[in-house]
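The step that takes the researchers longest sounds almost clerical: writing a folded protein down as plain text. Below is the pair of lines this work produces for a single protein:

——
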Amino acid sequence: MLLDQQIDLMKAEIVSAVQACIQIKSVKDEEHSAEGAPFGPGVKEALEWTLDLGKSFGFQVKNVEGYAGHIEMGTGELLGILGHLDVVPEGDGWSVPPYGATIVDGKIFGRGALDDKGPSLAALFAMKAIKDANIPLKMRVRLILGTDEESGWADMDYYFKKEETPQMGFAPDAEFPVIHAEKGILHLEISKPHSPALAHIVSIRGGERANVVPDRCDVILQGLSYEDIAQQLANYVFPEGVSASVISKKSESDLELLFQGTSAHGSLPQNGNNAALYAVRFLRTLPLSAEEQETLDFISIYPGMGFHGEGFGIALSDEPSGKLSLNLGILDMTSTNTRFVIDIRYPVTYQRDEVFQPIKKIALNQQFSVEIINHQEAHHVPKDSPLVQSLLKAYAEVTGLEPYAFAIGGGTYAKAIPQGVAFGPVLPGEPDGIHCPDEFISIENLLLTTKVYAQAILNLAADIN
């Protein structure tokens, strides 16, 4: 109760810190990488800013060459809290500035508010509350701050080559109560050259990250009638949340089309409307060449059928973690080459090759090449483990809500340590705006999350005789 009161007194400080961190545009920018800034200047700024905040609280801090950093308190064995400061690109459809950290109706809006700056700072302020209360700890509590969580985890690969790996901990980067199992993640790049060049498709470009449902797709066509395409669009029935239009004549023969959908996290493709897929489905209705039709058919039938890998015949499922999911995250098609990237989350009782080999066989049969560009093994901590039970107890004590453990398709830093689970901040029944326009965290939930994390640290690390 004392900690709860302390955290309430820090409300203005917590809110201000989250706003300031959101206002740093920490999107990966390798084109401007430098020594100490492997993922670009924005990511570097966010890391340095957060480490400076931790230092101002009296904690020990360390910057590991810009790849990651940590903020630490206490002595003894290591308890890890693994958050991240990089964010996905903002995308379209915002009603407020995506890096403005605007407060509306008690909610802080901005890219990273929920994923993962707000929760990471909640963990930091939970540590501060414990320190200020002079509560003795039997463990070192280390907040590890990653910078490449959204793009491939090169940060964690580097950090754990240099620094000690916690054997136990949690990632404040998903949902409450406790996520004890995370599906395997497989990103595949599938491509095919076109020779001779395609007759009508100049380019189709949708999506920036494999783990985000594309909310926009830009198409340039040549050699087709503006009137015919405009009429076809007028007659085509798109679902709610999807729209398309001819936005310009780039030349007498070139037409530019814009398809807009709804973004969502790549692990939950059913929650979005994939603009790239709807573009492909519409383009299949046009009088294109045989090779253009075959290529669009391949995309529509295989990665485009269902949300669970039905097209590739990999609709796998198990009891601990549920169904496989598949998201077409990037489509980059030109007159000379087709390339797309899919994000697959497979159940914890299956192995990578049970997913990869069927896709590879189908792709090669259609003259597409396949490359694995990222893979994370599935991860599972038993529900009856001391870690899971301690976190469930903290959650129930603070929120008064029913504690239970469950599985997700999203991949968090919990996978980076042997006994790691994901823990908050989204409460059951609350909207999950991760990777969506108008991402937000409510101030009420931010404070509640801070209190839960403080209690969790006490349950796991307090030196109570």
Notes: The chain has a mean pLDDT of 95. The longest strand covers residues 184-193.
